[in-house]
Design a protein that fits this description.
The chain has 10 helices and 14 strands. By secondary structure, it is of the alpha/beta class.
Length: 343
């Protein structure tokens, strides 16, 4: 008879409500589970008792484009947590194409994985395959990017992008002023992050009617496009034309350095996310500040929550959202925050 661990708590590793045969092999398995809990630190180790015959929980993770630098630590967090919980992670790369994302999720369904983590590029376009997974009895978790409400997901794990937008607006007002003239750089149009960040940004600024959005345009979360767009804005708006450039993501970090190198320190750059190049910009004085969305905890928690759900610990999964912290980083506190990715 396999043992059942109802609760394993970290720090004190308090194990309760255990039903098992008193064999040396069972005791060794229990010790391994307890050790895993101690190693995880902030991640709570959960049992795999729901799996018959000692088979590991299999978690599928479809990431819309695994080559995006943001997802390097995200994937690392998922894999490390799967290893610590004795789960198997099956990673699928959507390669930035919705059709490939859908095919990847279909592949995971055909493999009969126990749960699927979806980080999609299109909140609406991914819904049919989410419904397919649900019909197959496979729980789906939206991670980092949302799935449209029509998609039956267990929960969303990631940043509150609405709050992210509000934080950017608060940073703009506090560092640039309530009369700022702003060029607003959008992320990939139609993504949940782009839409929610813009809504939060706009809603916060309703209290500051003298802040003017002079122009807005997408750079598609792409650094090369961000640089070209900033170069265009620098030509279009001479000194005094705009006071700030707000980028929904981190892509304009190199563009901020370009503006600084070309004598345009009249423009303050407010960015989103916190890779190495943004931290360097804040330290160098050519980036005013950013909102720090750390991808690794999102990856860690997504796998942990999926294992909890499959193992019957559904009360441990917060619904309909589990939001991660979003601190503002400026030159005043940059020393306290290592970069979220990029070394």
């Amino acid at each position: 008879m396999p043992f059942v661990v109802v609760g394993v708590l970290i720090h004190n590793v308090n194990i309760g409500d255990i039903e098992m045969k008193k064999t040396s092999s069972t005791r060794r398995a229990l010790l391994r589970l307890a050790a895993s809990a101690a190693v995880l630190g902030t991640v709570t180790a959960m049992p795999l008792a729901a799996q018959a015959a000692g088979k590991p929980v299999v978690i599928g993770s479809m990431i819309w484009n695994a080559s995006v630098p943001f997802y390097s630590n995200f994937i690392k967090g998922q894999q490390q947590t799967a290893d610590k919980l004795d789960a198997k992670l099956v990673l699928v790369d959507g390669k930035g194409d919705l059709g490939t994302e859908i095919a990847g999720v279909q592949q995971l369904i055909s493999q009969h994985v126990d749960a699927i983590l979806i980080t999609a590029s299109d909140a609406k376009g991914i819904v049919p395959v989410v419904k397919m997974a649900d019909k197959a009895g496979i729980p789906v978790f939206a991670v980092n990017n949302r799935v449209d409400d029509a998609g039956p997901t267990v929960t969303f794990i990631g940043a509150d992008d609405y709050e992210f937008g509000r934080q950017q607006a608060a940073l703009l007002v506090s560092k640039v002023g309530p009369n700022a003239r702003v060029a607003y750089m959008l992320g990939g149009l139609g993504t949940s992050a782009q839409l929610q960040r813009q809504k939060g940004f706009d809603d916060y600024l309703k209290a500051y009617p003298k802040v003017t959005i002079v122009t807005s345009q997408t750079a598609n979360w792409d650094a090369a496009q961000a640089l070209r767009l900033v170069q265009d804005w620098l030509n279009k708006y001479p000194k005094g034309g705009i006071d700030a450039i707000v980028d929904q993501g981190p892509e304009a970090a190199n563009a901020a350095r370009y503006a600084h190198d070309h004598g345009r320190d009249d423009i303050k750059f407010v960015l989103g996310d916190y890779p190495r190049e943004v931290r360097e910009g804040i330290e160098g004085g050519y980036v005013t500040g950013t909102v720090d969305q750390d991808p690794k905890p999102q990856g860690e928690r997504s796998v942990e929550a999926a294992v909890q759900w499959v193992a019957g610990q559904k009360d441990k999964v917060k619904r309909p959202n589990e939001f991660m912290p979003l601190p503002i980083v400026t030159k005043d506190n940059v020393a306290q925050f290592p970069p979220a990715w990029g070394g």
